[in-house]
Write the structure tokens for this entry.
Amino acid sequence: MWNNLAAAGIFYAIAGLIVVFALLSVTLRNIFHSALALIVALLGIAAIYIYLDAEFLALVQVLIYVGAIMTLIIFGIMLTLKISDRTLKQHNQQRLLAFLIAGSMGFVLIVIFSRFRVKEVVSSKAAPALADIGRELLTKYALPFEVISVVLLAALIGAIVVSSKE
């Protein structure tokens, strides 16, 4: 009983952390702090993947979303002129409309999910191990993997050229 209770407690603690930092990422007034809160929320999602024994998804979550996309977002924030200016207005006047739309969408989702019962599905096929996925990436899919790395390098060099002052 204590194992199930401890596991549920860990899951709800991580889920609560995700919800808190996701809310902070959309409510903080400083956009840089919002990006940092989003990083913590994405790391929490990776922790949920680890909790569910999906190590590959956790690794992809950390590498792609936290590592690459959030780095790109933070570079975009830092390269934007006057982002730390106190006179810059970072909120608009549509809070009530946004709250009504988000609340109604949440209500619709709760109604939809409350009507369906989830059946436990047991797969007879074992999930591929992380080593098997890595072996496939570096043998069968080596060329597309390297092409993507060259495209990302070209994008990085382009971003540096565009952002540099002449």
Notes: The chain has six helices and no strands. Residues 30 and 86 are 10 Å apart (CA to CA). The mean pLDDT is 84.
